Amino acid sequence: MKILYAASEAQPFAASGGLADVAGSLPKALVKEGHECAVVMPYYKNTFKPEQQKKIKFLTSFNVPVGWRAQYCGVFTYSAPEGVVYYFLDNEYYFKRDFGIYGYYDDAERYAFFSRAVLEMLHHIVYKPDVINSNDWQCALIPVYYQIYYRYNPELKNIRNVFTIHNIAYQGQYGMNLLEEILSIPKHMANIVEYDRDVNFMKGAIEVADKVTTVSPTYATEILDPWFAHGLDRILQSKVYKTCGFLNGIDTDMYNPATDKEIAANFSLKSKAGKRTCKAALLEEVGLPDGDEPVIGIISRLVEHKGFDLIKSVFDRIIQLGYKAVILGSGDIIYENFFNEMKFRYPEKVAFICGFKPPLAKQIYAGSDMFLMPSKTEPCGLAQMISLRYGTIPIVRATGGLKDSIIDCGEPGGTGFTFLTYNADDMFSAVERASEAYNDKKTWNALVGRAMKADFSWSVSAKLYVGLYEELISWN
Question: Could you read off the pLDDT of 137-190 as tens digits, one per residue?
Fold first, then answer.
């Protein structure tokens, strides 16, 4: 079986969020399952490191229709050691930008070009996929263009389209004036992408894709509810028959406390002594005194939907319970100012590092005792899985992927502490329960052991995707 995985970002080439982790890991897992998998993404500025640059090859070029224009597209290829082939679509006007991947005035045109180019590319390369798996709004026009222009093409017929929603809040919503001029969608087919009198890229993919997946089973159910769906609940409710959710995994080689070179000491399920060394090293790194008090770690964008309004409400009470806190992240100025204030109010208890530093993130995962993640919504979440891998116990709200991945300690096989309602007092109760468990060393050691045994490798999720792809191919 041949799968083409289309994404706007992928590790280790370009990344701004969790999509890049998925696009960098799932294809490798699919190859391990015995299938051919290629990844296609834009060729951004500074995509390659010097050692990678030597290995990329120019393959071909062609023109892509964008409204009334024909725009150049070059194809470069790179073969990864794990067996995944990457295709990079090049257009310097669209993708050689200086400031990040997204957020430009012409993002609609940029990713309409990319989506059409993915399908045009298939006329010019040997690789002919059985399934195209497109991800998020930037790739949502791939199944739309396939439906309009390529479905009955002799070369490309019988390709199945899967569309994966990583975060429904970002849908690709634009004015209807883009329909023909930029998107090349005929007026008589406007109904595919029209939603609430706008063009909605994601709605179009949901309308025409053979299957729609999300990144956790609970999130697949939640987005049928207007509270979670950001307006798309009506179309999703009508397409529930083809929607499902598979929990993402993590790269267990990248996040392995037994071999990780970025942490102070290695440790494993059989030999946990190194975790205490990691805790001492973390406290020294962030300027807090060493000690036996529980350390609670937070790594996140500092925005309301990640639960920071809850944290802000009861943070003083958390510190008064005896916790030390290490926070790494940036975002809304109200939360950055708050944690700076807490750092000065509790200089021996609180460390706040504004920004994101990957090596420090690893040290927080390895050196903290608990990891706090009280999200209002969380499609999947990877941080809670990574923290389990390092024996750091998650405290999470039971929503989306957090609900699917963390079992409360009040239940058999518990791996963390959960709370249900989006309420600061309920979150504090979970933090309080974690403190009580930490003070019982026998209970805590058993909990850490269960956490480190949890399997969130991509092999589990890859098998689910393979089953879905095989079901679609059987329709032919």
Answer: 999 999 999 999 999 999 999 999 999 999 999 999 999 999 999 999 999 999
Query: Residue length, the chain?
Result: 476
Q: In what order do the strands lie in the sheet with 350-354?
A: 350-354, 324-329, 295-299, 370-373, 393-397, 417-419
Strand partners, 42: 89
- pTM (2 decimals)? 0.92
Q: What domains, with CATH codes, occur in the chain?
A: 2-249+459-473 (3.40.50.2000), 273-456 (3.40.50.2000)
Task: Write the CB contacts of 50 (distance below 8 Å, at least 6 apart in sequence).
Answer: none
Angstrom CA distances, 471 to 4, 55, 131, 135, 224, stand at 16, 36, 11, 19, 24
Using DSSP's 3-state secondary structure scheme, residue 463 falls into: helix
Spell out where 180-231 has E strands.
194-195, 198-200, 211-214
- CA 278 and chain centroid, separation: 27
> Following DSSP, what letter does each residue of 115-183 receive, concatenated?
HHHHHHHTTTSS---SEEEEETGGGTHHHHHIIIIITT-TTTTT-EEEEEES-TT---EE-TTHHHHTT
